[in-house]
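Quick question about two entries, pasted in order.
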Amino acid sequence: MPESSLAERGDRSEEQVSGAKVVAQALKTQGVEYVFGIVGVPVTEIAVAAQGLGIWYIGMRNEQAACYAASAIGYLTGRPLIVIGGSSDRSQETMGAFQEFPQVEACRLYSKFSARPSSIEAIPTIIEKAVRSSIYGRPGACYVDIPADFVNLEVNANSIKYVECCMPPPVSMAETSAVRMAASVIRNAKQPLLVIGKGAAYARAEESIRKLVEQCKLPFLPTPMGKGVVPDNHPNCVRAARSRALQFADVIVLFGARLNWILHFGLPPRYQPDVKFIQVDICAEELGNNVRPAVTLLGDINAVTKQLLEQFDKTPWQYPPESTWWKTLREKMKSNEAASKELASKISLPMNYYTVFYHVQEQLPRDCFVVSEGANTMDIGRTVLQNYLPRHRLDAGTFGTMGVGLGFAIAAALVAKDRHPGQRVICVEGDSAFGFSGMEVETICRYNLPIILLVVNNNGIYQGVDASSWKEMLNFREAAAMAPPFCLLPNSHYEQVMTAFGGNGYFVQTPEELRKSLRQSLADTAKPSLINIMIEPQAMRKAQDFHWLTRSNM
């Protein structure tokens, strides 16, 4: 062999690779496409290495928003959240190193998997296990801790063995006997109801669930992030009669929906004492929470729904569309829709929530992503703003966490830009909720993302006061001593945050201004926009059959 070939071979065998590059390549091998974060010692090199391999790096302004965006990407793409954190040098452990903290131990409480590689050579194995753990069973976050000295430490490239991309999650099916029992319970129901949850959307069960709805003529109700699995305007959707449907159904089938606070724990008086629940879920530990179900169907929601369809294919059955139950639901839907339309039609100024959302709904593209957070803004918005596609609704979800909106919107916009060019993201924020992550407007402008922010501004948290009342209060005492704790500064010009970074900003006070600004924002595909919508500070939602879960005396 020529000496030059021997030299080249020797050079390759001695090629060095840094820990940062190993982390990036391991992520790439596992199919990671997006990384969100804020760079700093010691993780800057990891972000640079990831970009070098074609992974998109999105620099955020706050770590919380970065995690919110990454979690939304996981929901939208099926590749859940992996958190990579830098920690102090191994040689300085227990010495009071810079930001030393037992991160691995702390994260075990809140993640499915938490580990620190023992060597650079171990990084690919740890990352593969983190990714696999995050998507198998019920999806969830995993944490990988990278010591600071690993980032720039170099080892022989030949010593690194990358683990091939983990296989897709195995598809599990329910026991056949349980499926037969569930079908029998549904057939014998006098007042059946399907509840379509976020789990059904994540499982991509939209085709099979829609077929079940239409084949068996069953009424259905989506949870907030289950909206769009079957379109909101489907004739069998009874979301406008939510309370009545839940309260009087005698058989309820839960497709990836938990009996937590969002569904009032499945308990009276929101439900009949003898209601029969059929739970369909990927997570065994979720079955039987709060209420003993009549039937449990453990497995992939799409696969289990197909099993149910097989039962109704063998012995066809339809729920009578002219039943008393359907008549009751339709009457309640009609009365609730009439009450909402009456509120929406009010011409007094400032506007109320229903007026705002009515005019927004008129112009929303059918294929847009709708992101929402806030108190009344989110609760009322989800009843008026419709979704027609699965996984196109993102909101505060189970934890009701404020601050998720802009991170979620950024994630949805990246997916839209990358996979569905032309789709827009409409992010509907309460003014208080916007304050949690408002600086992410700079991120939106930096990456020129197709986002329209609607800030529904009532000058406060739940409610506020008008400018004249605020000024009058300040004539008596300092704001800290007298201003109600729920008040924010009246008539704040949030749209100027957007214009400060080069986007379009609008301050609107009338329906005409709202319609015009939204039309202009939708037409302008070159820049993001923020529409600051002033509403009545004391505006509230229409009267409810039941109080909300937690009540205030204010």
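Here is the second entry:
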Amino acid sequence: MDFAVLPAEAPLEKTGQNKDIGQEDGTANSEHGEEEMEVESEKEEEKPKAGGAFSSALSSLNVLRPGEIPDAAFIHAARKKRQMARELGDFTPVDSEPGKSRLVREDENDASDDEDDDEKRRIVFTVKEKSQRQKIAEEIGIEGSDDEALVAGEQDEELSRWEQEQIRKGINIPQVQPSQPAEVNNVYYQNTYQTLSYGSSYGIPYTYAAYGSSDTKSQKADNTVPFKTPSNEMTPVTIDLVKKQLKDRLDSMKEMHKANRQQYEKHQQSQEDSTKAIERLEGSSGGIGERYKFLQEMRGYVQDLLECFSEKVPLINELESAMHQLYKQRASRLVQRRQDDIKDESSEFSSHSNKALMAPNLDSFGRDRVIYQEQVKRRTAEREARRARRRQAREQTGKMADHLEGLSSDDEETSTDITNFNLERDRILKESSKVFEDVLESFYSIDCIKSQFEAWRSKYFASYKDAYIGLCLPKLFNPLIRLQLLTWTPLEGKCRDFETMLWFESLLFYGCEEQEQVKDDADISLLPTIVERVVLPKLTVISENIWDPFSTTQTSRMVAMVQKLIDGYPSVVNAENKNTQMLLKALLLRMRRTLDDDVFMPLYPKNILENKNSGPYLFFQRQFWSSVKLLGNFLQWYGILSNKTLQELSIDGLLNRYILMAFQNSEYGEDSIKKAQSVIACFPKQWFAHLTGDKTISQLENFCRYLVHLADTIYRNSIGCSDVEKRNAREHIKQIIKLLASIRALDHAVTVANDHNVKEFKILIEGK
């Protein structure tokens, strides 16, 4: 709060001049600001003398020095000025509690000495908030240091406000006698905010000048402008002028009407477009609603279908595993019986066992002799009975003359085994028929499921494609197809072709509507994908656990099935396909296991083999021809397996390892040539069609050397014999040359022809 002590007397200035009350020193102004007070003029009825006295007392407020005691007239003038400021609304009231003075000393330290004496004489003023004009002044750059400019602006504002109030009250504005030089009389004071002169508003020809102290006048002189008396002359009104104005107004109204009409047409067109858009959207919303409803129904159907499959698929897997296990047990039983028969006959005709080193109750293999002899007798009786039945069947069909022991497959089963197999098979089929007995047809029938997705495809193909249904259908149909293929085994003669089954016929034309096919449509490859994911894995299991490579019938059927898949479904059944690689790997493993576990070639002295009716001879011949049959079965896979793999299995693993051993242990003569012809007949002709030079494939070198040795042996045996035997020996040598030429071993054929003076070499080669 600021303190100001009013002086007792002060010289009076001219009426209308407004000064500050309670002027502060420079330090107080910079810290706290100035306090304003506006003075309202006296009423019109007061006499000029009284107005002059009041003005003199009022103007004396500006010259009160600090420390002076104001008199009664000064206090009355201050109260009057405050009253007028309150009425004008530009004054903040101070606290007026009883017992307190109205004046607050500026300097508290100066008032501390005579605090009790001056208490009653003080006038208290409060520091009010800054007025709007002060705030504007601060914004336009008048800082607290420009006190005089701010005070001058406030004085001009109060003067202007006071003059306008007097005009509103209808008071005649008195003439102001200038006391300043003549050059100042023609200007009026203009504050920061230029206000309109009341003289110009009412057409008064005289002007006002700003009055005040000499310092204030010097500061205001730069901001004043000359006041010009407005002209009261008016343009004369004529008919042409009126017509022109009316015409201008009419033209303006026409332009406005035209603009309004254009705006109206624009709004009318916008309304029509909006109406059409609403109708179009309402029409299209019906299709969207149907689409949403359909997709929601499909969503619920697919969820129910997956929930059903999540419960039924484990049952289908169990039934499929049970069926595979049943077939595997039967195949393993037949293989085990063949291995036992070979062991029994080998043990029976073995002549090199050392019985002295064995316990009296054990045989050469360490088995209990009594129990083993009983088992051997039972197996021998069963084996001979099966051979007799096969021999009888060949006699009835007239194939007895061409048959060789060892070429037939001993796959006959006992009645007990057949009965047990059929009972278990029927049980599994009965269980499979109960898998979906508690399910609606629409959730297990392939036709019903297919129709649901066909409707989706035909109605909303875009969403059908976005949902990748074409990629999901093979997996969706997988358990249903495997259930139908439960008893499917292509190794059996009565096995039905899978392309004639119901599931294949139902899905054959799926996605093949009359409309134009879409590029990259996954439904086109539905059946090939099912073959890849269902048929190939099933064939892999059959090849690994059920197929018997010794069986020519089973091998032929298996080769035919795989070749059919290669020819009919080349997009999936190829070397790059994972399931195809697994199938070929299973085939190779089964062939190697057969080569290691089931092939056996006995070795007997030649004097034992001279008796062609003896047991060792028959056993030897049977094992030889079974090996040749296995060689032929291996080479049936030509075109499916690589040549390198086939040559490794058939030539290195079987011919050079077992069959050549039998050749060397056989009689050299016509029988050996017949066996050699049978072996060469198994080789694919494509192996030798594109060979260049005189040499055959490297794996057959040992076999070729055996043929050369066979020709030399036949020639040596014919020396000293009759001419008939010599001619027969010569014919045998020519046959050997033909055999060598048939496998493109021309170097060995030329050697044999030169050694034995065979002149028909070219004829033999061309007639190979």
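Reply: Strands lie at 102-103, 187-188, 225-226. The longest strand covers residues 102-103. Hope that helps.
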